[in-house]
Amino acid sequence: MERRSRASGKDASYGGSLEEANLGNKDKRFETKRTRPASVRQLICRGVGVCLLALLAYLLYQAFVADCVVDPVVKNSAAVPALVGPLSPEAGESMATAQLLFPELWQGPECTAWDTKGVLYTGTATGQLWKLDPSSDEPVLIGRTGKKACSGNDNWPSRECSHPAGIRLVSDHTLLICDTYAGLLSLSLNNGQLKTLVPDGQVIDGKPVRFANDLVVAPDGAIYFSHSTMANRDTYYYDILASRPTGRIIRHVPESGTSSVFLDNSYFTNGVELSHDEESLIVCETSMYRIKRVFIDHRAGQSEILVDNLPGFPDNVRRHPDGGYLVALAGHRSWITNLGDHNPAIRRLIINVLPYEKISKLSSARGMCVHVSDDGDIINSWHTPDTVYGRSSHCAIHDGHLYVGSYHYSGLLKQKLDKNTPKSRDE
Predict the structure, then answer these.
(1) pLDDT single digits (tens) 44-69
(2) Which of 76, 99, 268, 296 could pair with 286 as two cysteines, CB 3.0-4.6 Å apart?
(3) Sheet containing 258-266: which strands, arranged edge to edge?
(4) Which helix (H) or strand (E) holds 348?
């Protein structure tokens, strides 16, 4: 019995071991089947990981190692100001009901001017110059600045079409034009003759004039005009991203035909206006989101910041009939632009990786007109409906209406202002 039970114990023990062995083999078979999908997942994960590492290495290379067409520098900009108070969309009249003038004819009407009879003048990104008599409903083509007769069906702007940006009237007989491809021009309104005063590419003080942008005529007859960058019109976004002071203000004397540098080392020099006391120029520096006052009296060349840290990119500036200045903001700053300001590597990455035409889309197209006091305080603002019209380049008040131009959108916005708003600013 004892032996049997020992034998039985051995048998039981032996039998149990076989059973466990068989179960173990089955478990291993099932385990092998269960781990196959996991191995596939692991391979996929490893592949994705390798791709992500390769992408990261590529982005780091483009940001820190690869050559770049410009060399961005750190820009210590403050946080984007909130659109509250006088910057709020509710601060000025709503422009949701603004009239859009001649979108079929006027592609990118960047600037406006009026003569003493109330005739409106504008230039378009197709190189055309137009006038609109207040007694007429149809604009009249009065000239072109380009070598080619372009229309809205052409690829604009382009060097062949040319692109009149800032314009000013000298009496009622001459229209002065800053053309971003052609330089500083004048058009006789009597006979239509177009004359080049300072051609694009003319070397002044060792540097060529590029991207003539806006102008103003001083009391002594001298023309002050901005050329925004050393880059040309087709690659100017790179210069804005670089945040280097390559813009200038040129002083041109029509009587002698001489030109000299009045202001050097400016950050994408854009809109130019004469102060109300005529002792200084009001100058927009687009890439620094600010406006400077540059003296032309006995303090000539000295400057001070009038407005700093605007919520967008200042373009043209014109005197407000109630004092102060109207500034057009051609887009609203975003968190991406603010992040890039403090990290040049991000801007290098953007330049090296993104197609050029996509770079402008990193900022909102929201257009704004901002009323700034003579002391640099924000008084009021108007916001364009950015789903319909944006990239505001010019804001001016005439006959109780606010006119807004854009270098990118078609047509000219016209908004009736309330009765308390001054009626006109004829320039």
Answers:
(1) 898 999 999 999 999 999 999 999 99
(2) 268
(3) 212-217, 223-227, 247-253, 258-266
(4) helix 344-353
